[in-house]
Write a structure and sequence with these properties.
Order of helices and strands: HHHHHHHHHHH
Strand content: under 5%
CATH architecture of the largest domain: Up-down Bundle
CATH class of the largest domain: Mainly Alpha
Oligomer: single chain
Largest sheet: none
Helix content: over 70%
Number of domains: 2
Distance between the termini: 82 Å
Structural class: mainly alpha
Number of helices: 11
CATH topology of the largest domain: Four Helix Bundle (Hemerythrin (Met), subunit A)
Shape: flat
Number of strands: 0
Radius of gyration: 37 Å
């Protein structure tokens, strides 16, 4: 009975991990994302308004069946994966009531499209690399925040009297400096109006741009690229370890085959040697037999 249950679990695991099942779920996720986008169109035909909720129920049903199959296949192992928890939360959010205080969750249905992260291994690797880069990004964000705070205080002290609409308060200044960091209209909207009253203000803005846009933001890119490379190297090491285990197993099998061949060779030699020893028996007996010629 136990072996049969293990066999069913193994077959379910092979089914939910198969490429055909994964591609089917991926197609359902993409189809659902398209239908949720169509729901925002200003098209009020009756057949259109009635078919979209029906399609949504069918998609949710497919996701619930997928969730049930994974729970039956993995059992308690299902809850050891963060991606399974992500799928569980997204799917359960889809079956909550969409009326009353939960009506805001209708807009969260599009989060199902993020399930492509858990279905596609390539996208999953990118997300895992980004999560691994968070500790290093935290230090860079601290440096960026400190730079922003110091620059915002300086700009507020320097330009609040002449440009109060942009640098009147610390919050307004921080927002203005964020626009400067993105390089979106910073010269015409911010720098030039300030330079009408402070001709040397360009020096402040240029130093701020060099520190934030060119230096600190590039550190973010460097950390993410390093995390992606380390993730790639880890995957290669895992493959090498798996290959090494296969080689060791193959070598042990070859050693076992050599031992079996040696045993078989010894048996063959013994079987071939026994008739020769038997041939000597009649010769000895013939010497003991009486000589009838006399």
């Amino acid at each position: 009975m136990v072996s049969s249950s293990h066999g069913v679990s193994a077959r379910l695991t092979a089914f939910v991990e198969s490429s055909a099942f994964r591609n089917f779920i991926m197609a359902v996720i993409v189809f659902n994302a398209v239908t949720l986008g169509l729901d925002t169109l200003p098209f009020n035909a009756d057949w259109f308004m009635q078919s979209l909720p029906l399609i949504d129920r069918v998609v949710v049903g497919v996701f619930l069946v997928e969730l049930a199959l994974k729970l039956a296949a993995y059992r308690l192992r299902f809850f050891r994966s963060g991606w399974n928890w992500f799928d569980l939360i997204v799917i359960l959010a889809s079956v909550l009531p969409m009326a009353g205080s939960f009506s805001v969750l209708r807009s969260l249905r599009i989060l199902r499209a993020f399930r492509l992260f858990s279905v596609m291994p390539e996208m999953r690797k990118v997300v895992e690399a980004l999560l691994r880069a968070i500790p290093g990004m935290g230090a860079v964000m601290a440096v960026l925040g400190l730079t922003f705070y110091v620059s915002a205080v300086m700009a507020t002290k320097l330009y609040s009297e002449t440009n109060p609409e942009r640098f009147g308060t610390l919050g307004d200044t921080a927002f203005s400096l964020f626009q400067v960091m993105t390089l979106e209209g910073w010269a015409t909207d911010l720098a030039l109006p300030v330079m009408e009253f402070h001709p040397w203000a360009w020096l402040f803005f240029l130093v701020f741009i060099v520190l934030t846009s060119f230096a600190i933001l590039n550190l973010f890119i460097a950390i993410i690229v390093d995390s992606l490379q380390s993730k790639h190297f880890d995957a290669e090491e895992e493959r090498d370890a798996e290959v090494g285990e296969d080689v060791v197993e193959l070598q042990s099998e070859i050693a076992g085959l050599r031992e079996q061949i040696a045993v078989l060779s010894d048996l063959v030699q013994r079987s071939l040697g026994s008739p020769a020893a038997g041939e000597g028996v009649p010769s000895s007996s013939a010497s003991k037999a009486p000589d009838n010629s006399e």
